[in-house]
Amino acid sequence: MAEPALSETDIDTAGLAVRLRTVVKTYENGVTALGPLDLDVAKGEFVSLLGPSGCGKSTALRLIAGLGAPSVGTVSVSHRANRADGRHPIGFVFQEPTLMPWASARENVRLPLKLAHATAAEANRRIEEALAQVGLSEFADAYPRELSGGMKMRVSLARALVTDPDILLLDEPFAALDEITRFRLNDDLLDLWRKLHKTVIFVTHSVFESVYLSQRVIVMTARPGRLASEFRIATAEPRGEEFRTSAEYAGYCRAVSSALSPSDSGQRSA
Fold this sequence. Notes:
Elements: H1 8-13, E1 16-26, E2 32-42, E3 46-50, H2 57-65, E4 72-77, E5 90-93, H3 105-115, H4 120-133, H5 149-161, E6 167-171, H6 179-196, E7 199-204, H7 207-213, E8 216-220, E9 227-232, H8 241-244, H9 247-260, E10 268-269
Parallel strand pairs: 3-7, 3-8, 5-6, 6-7, 9-10
Antiparallel strand pairs: 1-2, 1-4, 8-9
Helix pairs in contact: 3-4, 3-5, 4-5, 7-9
């Protein structure tokens, strides 16, 4: 029997942002995409979910975000419940920027605040702050067609940050970008995480990206996704190009890559 969902008080006391217990997701067509999966994410932690296509990584994010319900098990999330001022406990960045083509960067970022009925003055202040956080202040009035792929993703990230979430969920946000842009956005995301102290759960197919960004890498099995291995990336902060080119980084990448091998069985941790 699954454990009951923790109350916000209980999960706060435990210092957790997210807890999944024996979570299973089976769709109406009978396909079980996920689970059973147990996962704890501490407040302020940066965790990556890594695994083969179709293993349920994105499904797990959607369950945490409340965009679906588990078929079995419990999802407990710690957050502030105050939404009167347009704040929201969870920010979600999808693989595609999903921007409104007829709206400027500023108006795309405004959307969640408009839906939350934030006052114009408060919305304007927070939009400018969010655009500054992602380095797009000078492009506030630009339309998506005028922006590069990396800049569109920055707008999407600003839109997630503008509600001041406690938890930031990112579903392969940089997968379609060129390597140089991806490296730059990886660095920018780490800077934001250090400054804003958000809990980040990041889905990726890239071993190299997961090791570079994360405090902890969760390797999942093929569908239905379960915990295969867990790696703590214990390295000095702040990370940068020196870490990316180090023997330590290469060693972590080899270990995580090995855990993704089909011949690798059982659970391992490092």
